C-alpha cells in the first residue's frame, strides 16, 4: 500500500480525498475506480454484512451477467427510456447489448422461467453485482461512479399481502444492515400518501455532501423526501362577516412583488405580504397515451411551484409549463392577471395548494390587464377542482405529524425499497398457477443497496481531520501494529505479537517499514484502522501502547500477555 | 431451485447439460449465463480456494474496473490487435471504452503509479474478476463464455531471479489450488526450449471435450503443447561410403506421392517411402517493423508443416505461405521440384527439420521441371542455415525425455503461467529506483486461472450417468438431507437433524418438498452434493441412511446422535 501526502487535485469531498490519499481507491477514468487492497477489504466486508442479512430473511443469492441482450429491455421500453445513461454496445455479429444498470427484466424472466405454481412463493432473490450507468456527471469518487457495486433484490409474491410482508422484511433487514455498518441514516417516504405511505421508502445517509434533499422534524423523527411531504392545511374559516370581493385597478402589476407593492399603498387597511396573494401557474399535462390538456395550479404567492413535487403529484402524467405561444391560443388567459374566475368559467382544470381552504381570502388576478381582485374567498367566490401538493416545502413548515417544524437536510441514498407491483410481471406476463387452479399474476418488490457507495458514505460520516476512521464491522484490519522502535528485539517482538493476534482471529496490519515513527503514526491515522498498537520506546520497559482511533484514548499494555489483553480490549 | 428432466436442446457436452438440468446456471444469450444459487455457491467456493492460495504466496488482492478507457490499450496496440474479440463501446461523450479481456495494462500502470523504489519489490497483485471476450464461437456453456470469471495475477520484480522465484511460487500455488479442487490436470510446456523451458506453462484439465491438444509420454509423465515439443534428432551418419547424388528425370512428379511412386519403379534397389524424401516449403516471413523475406523450410516428405508449431518457432515474426503470384518473382523456384541447391545458391534462408542431420540421404527436387536428385546427403551436398521445429508431432514420436513414445490427448486450459518479462514495462516505461541509485526496468510475470470455467471442468471430470458429483472442497452443500417419509414425526425430526448438522458447521440442503421419494433421490443424484442423508422408512426403527454420492456406498446411522455420526463420517 501507498499513502499520498497531498489531496488529489480533482477531489471535492472529504471521502474522495481520504480514500485516495490513504490508498483505498485509484481513479482509472471518469467515474471508474480501481480498488486497492485496503479498499477491497472494506468493500468485501460490507458485502458480507449485506449478504448475511439478506440470507436471514430468506433471500437466495444469484448472479446475472452484466452484459445483457437488448430484447428484454426492449420489452419494457427501458432500452429507450434510459437515454444516455445506458451503456450500449454491439457484438461481432452486430447484435445489440447493454451493460446492466439494474436487472428487473432478468429477475422477472428468471422467475417466470423457473417457477410455475403458487407453492413456489414467496420468493426473494438477490445479487451483489457490478452495475453500469453512464452518469452525466460522475462525481465525488465512488459516491457516484459509472461502474459500481449494488445489492439488488426482488421479492415475488402471488398477492399484495405477500408483497407487504416481503417489503416489511426488507425494511427490517435494511435497518439491521445499516445499524451493523454504523451508518447514520434516516428512512424517508419517497412518494406521497396517494400511493400508500410505505410503498416506497429511501434510506438516506446523513451527509452534507449528499445530493438528495429531504426534510425532517427533529422533535418526532419524521423524515421524507420533499416530494412526499403532505401539507398540513389550516382550519377552514366561516364565511360569515368576510368582506365581499372588490376588483381594483392595480396598474402594471404582473408579478407578485409589484402586486404586493400596490396593495400596501392602496389603503386596504392592512399590511399585505406575498402570502396573501394567490398565484396561478398554467401548465399542460399529458396522461400516458393521451393528449395535452391545460392545468392551472394555484399556490400562495410566497411559494414557488416545486417541479419535483409537481411531477410526483402528477405521475404518471408528464407536464410542461405553458409556453408563450400556447398562451396565445387561450385569449381568456391574461398573463400576469389570471384569476380563478376565467379558469373555472372556461373549464380549465384548477388545482390549488392545500392551504387554500374554504374561507381564506386572496388577492389574485381579475382576468383583465392591470386588474386584480381583493378578498376573493375560497369556497364562496370560487371552488377549485381539488388540491395538489406542488408548492415548495420550507424550513419551518409544520411537520405533517404535528410534532414540530420541518428542517431540510442533505443525504446520500444508500438504500431504496419499493413496491413495484405488477409492472414487470405485466410486461412479461409472469403468471403462475394459483391455489384455485387459475393463473395468478405475480407482484414484485424491488430493493436496492449501494454497496460500493457505502465505502464512501462511511468514510464521509466517520472521518476526522487526521484521516479515516472505520467502524469495526467494516475496517480493513482489526489492528494496525506500528513498529516505532529500531531495536532488533522490539522488531522481532512486534512480529511475534502480530502472529499471536493473528492466532486469536484478528486481522493485523503490521507496519514494519524503516520509516520514521512520525510518518508511520500519520499513516495509521490516515488509514483509520480502529485500533492502533504501537511497539515503541516503552518496549524495553515491557509495555506497548493501544490507541483507539475514534476516541483518541491510549492505554499501556504489558508486553507479557499483550495479545490477549488487546483482544479483550477490542471485544 | 428447480431441476429439469430433459437435456437442453443446444447443449453438446455433459457439463453443460448437467449444470443446466441440475439448476446451476441458465443461458441468457450466446456465451452469457446466469448463476443460480447452487452454481453461485460452487463458484464462490472455488474463488475462495484460489484466494487462499494466492494470499499464501504473498499475493495482494485488488480489483480493477471491467469498463476501461481505450488509451492504455492503444499504447500496447492491443486495442487493435484484439480484433473482434474485444467488446468496444463509447460513452455519452463519444469516448472509446472496452470491456477488459485481460488487465496487463492496468496492472503495469498501477504499479508504475504506486511504487518508486526497488525496496517495494517483489510484488504480487491479483484480482478475481469478471472478464469479457467476444468469442467467435462461444461453446459448451460456461466452458467458453463471453462473460467469465478469471483470477489474474502479475508479479513485478527488479531482476530475472525475482521473476523466476515469483513464477515458481505461482507454479506451486497452482498445483495446491488444483489439488484442493480435485481436478485432474497436467502441466504442459507452452513454448519451445528457445525461450527457456519454464518461461510458459499451461495447466490443462484432462478432458475429451477440451479444445486444446497436447502430447504426453505415459512412461515419464512428460507433457507439452505441440508447439513446445522438441524433436529428438537421430545420430549423424558418417559420409564415408555414401553414394554420390544422381539427378533423375522423374517425369510429372510434383507431389510427394507421385515422387514416391516414381522412386519405387525406377530401380533404385531399395523401397522408398515418403520419409525418404525432402519436401521444401516456401514462406515469406516478416519481423516486427521489417520487410517480408523469403524462408524455405525443409521437412521429411511424410510430415506436414504444422502451422501452430511454425508460428511458435518464428515468433515474434509473422509468416505466410508463398502465394502463386510470389513464385513468379523468383524464377529459380521451380514449383514441385524445389531443391536445396537453388535455395542456397540464391541466398534464400533455408531451415530444416532437426531429423535432417549430417549424413542423411534424401530424394528431393533438382530445381528443374520433372527432375529430382537421389542420395543428396545433408552436410555433404548441402548445408542448411539451421533447424526449425515446424514438422507436425505424431502419436508414437519419441518423447523428448527419451522415456517412451508420445501420445496425444485433449485438455481444457485451466491455468497459464507466463514470464512476460519487460514487454509491458517497456510499453509504459515502468522503472523504479534500483539499489545502485539508477533506474531499473521492472520485469513481470502473468498468471491466470479460469475460475468460472472450473465449475464446468469439475462437472466434466466428476459426473456419472446419474448426474453431478462435487468434490467436498467445492460442493454447494456438505449434506443433502432428503425427507422420504410423510410421517409428521419424521419430517420434524429431519428438520431438527438439519439444524443440528448446521450447528456443527455443515451446510445442509434440506429437501422437504412433498414430492415422491423417487423424484427426490433423482434430484439429489443430479445435484451431486457429495453426501446424501435419507430420512426414510428406517426412521421409525431409529435409523437414517447416509449415502456417498461418489462411491454409492450407504450406511445406516442411528437417529440418536446422528448429527455427530454424520459429521464424523464426512470428516
UniProtKB/TrEMBL annotation, chains A, B:
PROSITE patterns: AA_TRNA_LIGASE_II. It holds the Pfam family HGTP_anticodon. Its main location: cytoplasm. Keywords: Aminoacyl-tRNA synthetase, ATP-binding, Cytoplasm, Ligase, Nucleotide-binding, Protein biosynthesis. Residues 31-471 form the Aminoacyl-transfer RNA synthetases class-II family profile domain. It is an enzyme of class 6 (ligase). GO terms for molecular function: aminoacyl-tRNA deacylase activity; ATP binding; proline-tRNA ligase activity. InterPro entries: aa-tRNA-synt_IIb, aa-tRNA-synth_II, aa-tRNA-synth_II/BPL/LPL, Anticodon-bd, Anticodon-bd_dom_sf, Pro-tRNA-ligase_IIa, Pro-tRNA-synth_IIa_bac-type, Pro-tRNA-Synthase_IIa_type1. One of its GO terms (biological process) is prolyl-tRNA aminoacylation. It is found in: Cytoplasm. Belongs to the class-II aminoacyl-tRNA synthetase family. ProS type 1 subfamily. This is Proline--tRNA ligase. The lineage of its organism: Bacteria, Bacillati, Actinomycetota, Actinomycetes, Mycobacteriales. The gene is proS.
Amino acid at each position: 500500500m501507498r499513502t499520498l501526502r497531498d489531496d488529489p487535485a480533482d477531489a471535492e469531498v472529504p471521502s474522495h480525498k481520504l480514500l485516495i490519499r490513504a490508498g483505498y481507491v485509484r481513479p482509472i477514468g471518469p467515474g471508474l475506480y480501481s480498488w486497492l487492497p485496503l479498499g477491497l477489504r472494506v468493500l468485501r466486508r460490507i458485502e458480507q454484512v449485506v449478504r448475511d442479512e439478506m440470507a436471514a430473511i430468506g433471500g437466495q443469492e444469484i448472479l446475472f451477467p452484466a452484459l445483457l441482450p437488448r430484447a428484454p429491455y426492449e420489452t419494457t421500453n427501458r432500452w429507450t427510456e434510459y437515454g444516455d445513461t445506458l451503456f450500449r454496445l454491439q457484438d461481432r455479429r452486430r447484435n445489440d447489448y447493454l451493460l446492466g444498470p439494474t436487472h428487473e427484466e432478468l429477475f422477472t424472466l428468471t422467475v417466470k422461467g423457473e417457477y410455475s405454481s403458487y407453492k413456489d412463493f414467496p420468493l426473494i432473490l438477490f445479487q451483489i453485482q457490478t452495475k453500469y450507468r453512464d452518469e452525466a456527471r460522475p462525481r465525488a469518487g465512488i459516491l457516484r461512479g459509472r461502474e459500481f457495486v449494488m445489492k439488488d433484490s426482488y421479492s415475488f409474491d402471488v398477492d399484495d399481502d405477500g408483497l407487504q410482508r416481503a417489503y416489511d422484511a426488507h425494511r427490517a433487514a435494511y435497518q439491521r444492515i445499516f445499524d451493523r455498518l454504523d451508518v447514520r441514516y434516516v428512512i424517508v417516504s419517497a412518494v406521497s400518501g396517494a400511493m400508500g405511505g410505505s410503498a416506497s421508502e429511501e434510506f438516506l445517509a446523513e451527509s452534507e455532501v449528499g445530493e438528495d434533499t429531504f426534510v425532517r422534524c427533529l422533535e418526532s423523527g419524521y423524515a421524507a423526501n420533499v416530494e412526499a411531504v403532505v401539507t398540513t392545511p389550516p382550519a377552514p374559516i366561516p364565511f360569515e362577516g368576510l368582506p365581499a370581493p372588490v376588483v381594483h385597478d392595480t396598474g402594471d402589476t404582473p408579478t407578485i412583488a409589484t402586486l404586493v407593492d400596490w396593495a400596501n399603498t392602496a389603503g386596504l387597511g392592512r399590511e399585505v405580504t406575498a402570502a396573501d396573494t394567490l398565484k396561478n401557474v398554467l401548465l399542460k399535462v399529458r396522461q400516458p397515451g393521451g393528449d395535452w390538456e391545460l392545468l392551472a395550479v394555484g399556490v400562495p404567492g410566497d411559494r414557488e411551484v416545486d417541479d419535483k413535487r409537481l411531477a410526483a403529484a402528477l405521475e404518471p402524467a408528464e407536464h410542461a409549463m405553458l409556453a408563450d405561444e400556447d398562451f396565445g391560443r387561450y385569449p381568456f388567459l391574461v398573463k400576469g392577471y389570471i384569476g380563478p374566475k376565467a379558469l373555472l368559467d372556461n373549464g380549465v382544470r384548477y388545482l390549488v395548494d392545500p392551504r387554500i381552504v374554504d374561507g381564506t381570502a386572496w388577492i389574485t388576478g381579475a382576468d383583465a390587464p392591470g386588474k386584480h381582485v381583493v378578498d376573493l374567498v375560497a369556497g364562496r367566490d370560487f371552488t377549485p377542482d381539488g388540491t395538489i401538493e406542488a408548492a415548495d416545502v420550507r424550513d419551518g413548515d409544520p411537520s405533517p405529524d404535528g410534532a414540530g417544524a420541518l428542517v431540510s437536510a442533505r443525504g446520500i441514498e444508500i438504500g431504496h425499497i419499493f413496491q413495484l407491483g405488477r409492472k414487470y410481471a405485466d410486461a412479461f406476463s409472469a403468471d403462475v398457477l394459483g391455489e384455485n387452479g387459475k393463473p395468478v399474476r405475480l407482484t414484485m418488490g424491488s430493493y436496492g443497496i449501494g454497496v460500493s457507495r457505502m465505502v464512501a458514505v462511511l468514510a464521509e460520516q466517520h472521518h476526522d481531520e487526521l484521516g479515516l476512521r472505520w467502524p469495526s464491522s467494516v475496517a480493513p484490519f482489526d489492528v494496525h501494529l506500528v513498529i516505532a522502535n529500531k531495536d532488533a528485539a522490539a522488531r522481532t517482538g512486534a512480529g511475534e505479537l502480530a502472529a499471536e493476534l493473528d492466532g486469536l482471529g484478528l486481522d493485523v496490519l503490521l507496519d514494519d517499514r524503516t520509516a520514521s515513527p512520525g510518518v508511520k503514526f500519520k499513516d495509521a491515522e490516515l488509514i483509520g484502522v480502529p485500533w492502533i498498537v504501537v511497539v515503541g520506546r516503552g518496549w524495553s520497559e515491557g509495555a506497548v501502547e493501544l490507541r483507539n482511533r475514534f476516541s483518541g484514548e491510549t492505554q499501556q499494555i504489558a508486553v507479557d500477555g499483550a495479545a490477549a489483553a488487546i483482544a479483550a480490549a477490542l471485544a
